[in-house]
Amino acid sequence: MLANQKGGVGKTTTAIHLAHGFALSGKKVALFDMDPQGNATVAVQQMSGGHEAKKGALTMLEPVAKNLWLLRSPGAESLVEPGADIEVDRLLELVQELAKVVDWLVIDCPPRIDAWGWAGLQLGDEVLVPVQAEFFAIHGLSQMLAAMEVAAKQLDGKARIRGVLPTMVDASEPVTLEVVEDLRKNLGDLVLDSLVLRDSNLVEAASHGKTAFAHCPWARGALCYGELVMEILDG
Amino acid sequence: MLANQKGGVGKTTTAIHLAHGFALSGKKVALFDMDPQGNATVAVQQMSGGHEAKKGALTMLEPVAKNLWLLRSPGAESLVEPGADIEVDRLLELVQELAKVVDWLVIDCPPRIDAWGWAGLQLGDEVLVPVQAEFFAIHGLSQMLAAMEVAAKQLDGKARIRGVLPTMVDASEPVTLEVVEDLRKNLGDLVLDSLVLRDSNLVEAASHGKTAFAHCPWARGALCYGELVMEILDG
Ligand SMILES: Nc1ncnc2c1ncn2[C@@H]1O[C@H](COP(=O)(O)OP(=O)(O)OP(=O)(O)O)[C@@H](O)[C@H]1O
Ligand SMILES: Nc1ncnc2c1ncn2[C@@H]1O[C@H](COP(=O)(O)OP(=O)(O)OP(=O)(O)O)[C@@H](O)[C@H]1O
Ligand SMILES: [Mg+2]
Ligand SMILES: [Mg+2]
């Protein structure tokens, strides 16, 4: 699942492109929008080509595209996040049922780990941490990774860290390249080989309710996410 | 106070520059870091010139610069945000005491309104909403503003919306200018005249633990925030 306490680092953008990328590679994919703000739900709402499931757990989800189903955001009913009334057990049940019919579960989490984020962490096996290639992102990252390791022990093997993904890298802003280098120096293999370049086409695609693969597959943002999909599928 | 459910839109950057800007204008200022992630605390930690208060409520805060004191972040003890054990009453008491000795209270809130964010909303009178000049920022803004109006009624006159501040505006990305225009068209006077241009000097200053006013006062980010300070002080 996609998690990072810092806001606006690319969790949602990465979640929808991983999900759609896996689907385009022939895998069956369930995308969970665990953020009451529902950015992921909005960012794929104009996609087409999905098939309604006739039976089984997938009937609980909406078809988005071929091989791709979405569990919609719980939605923000009020300004304050709900407390502990999220039925994690029901979600865990749904995940177990889905495991029989999908190959991948991609979970978009909110920033800061609130009740929804914590639920999200309990549902998936591995965590991908998108990290914006600039200062504030590094600060708190090592603390967050350490806290996630602690959570992983509590959650008995779930929430293992699959890797750190540098996002919004911008060749015209040399400091972003330095940040990526620092990340690799300090975290070694934990940093994925792929990185995501800053590309306004990604924002544009979201404003059309589609992933870059659907909207602008030639754009460098799409190419970057394509590489990421390959890296994750190759294990 | 600075609030916006969306992450990474410039709440913290705006909070520290408003606070330091007011202080440079001769006002006495208390800056509250209500975000367990503590980005504001980190972003001003290398500033100097502040004076320890000898008595009164200011002794609870740390001196940052002349006229500027900081209530440090509660700090993130673990991955999951604490539940309801924030002593809002003690904070309200502190605020009432501080009101006797400072002219301005600037409060930095976390993204999403968790327990700390909700506490922050109860402490201040007005809310400034920084809005990143791109797609996702607009979506959810009107819902958030409506939700804040509801909260303001519950909080009996607190949390009134002072204005919306467009941030990360970038002349080299024309869509950001369109977003600002849309904001003005849809929200009219609610949108401040000032806006904040994208300026990597702001990130650089934060990495040195200083505001742009201290680190790079000639930079356009500093000039933008200077204008904002004037606009707010002029009421
Ligand atoms: N590589 C990129 N290039 C340009 N813009 C990007 C890129 N990745 C994401 N964005 C944009 O930056 C904004 C924040 O991205 P996104 O919503 O994915 O972050 P997030 O971590 O999910 O945010 P939140 O913490 O609020 O959930 C969005 O408007 C998105 O379209
Ligand atoms: N005008 C700007 N130009 C360039 N970078 C900026 C600008 N404003 C903020 N930033 C950078 O963008 C990142 C996010 O900004 P900031 O931390 O202020 O947002 P935030 O809304 O407080 O985030 P969070 O939701 O995580 O608390 C920071 O690295 C900051 O230095
Ligand atoms: Mg998101
Ligand atoms: Mg912040």
List the defining traits of the structure above:
41% helix, 4-stranded mixed β-sheet, binds magnesium ion, two-stranded parallel ribbon, 10 helices, 235 residues
Describe the structure.
- Two copies of one chain form a homodimer.
- Chain A is of the alpha/beta class and 235 residues long.
- In chain A, 41% of the residues lie in helices and 14% in strands.
- In chain A, the strands form two sheets. In chain A, strands 2-3-1-4 form a four-stranded mixed sheet. Chain A has a two-stranded parallel sheet with strand order 5-6.
- In chain A, β2 and β3 form a beta hairpin.
- In chain A, α1 crosses α10.
- The mean pLDDT of chain A is 89.
- At the A-B interface, α2, α6 and α8 of A face α2, α6 and α8 of B.
- The site of one magnesium ion has 5 residues of chain A, from α1.
Quick take:
2 copies of one chain form a homodimer. Chain A contains 10 helices and 6 strands, in the order αβαββαβαβααβαααα. Chain A is an alpha/beta fold and 235 residues long.
E-strand count of chain A: 6
Instruction: Give the termini separation of chain A.
Output: 15 Å
What small molecules are bound in this structure? adenosine-5'-triphosphate, magnesium ion
Largest interface: A-B, 45 and 45 residues
Strand order of the largest sheet of chain A: 2-3-1-4
Q: What does the secondary structure layout of this molecule look like, with pairings?
A:
Two copies of one chain form a homodimer.
Chain A: H1 11-24, E1 29-33, H2 39-43, E2 62-65, E3 68-71, H3 88-98, E4 104-108, H4 115-123, E5 126-132, H5 135-138, H6 141-154, E6 160-167, H7 174-187, H8 200-207, H9 212-215, H10 220-233
Parallel strand pairs in A: 1-3, 1-4, 5-6
Antiparallel strand pairs in A: 2-3
Helix pairs in contact in A: 1-10
The complex binds adenosine-5'-triphosphate (2 copies) and magnesium ion (2 copies).
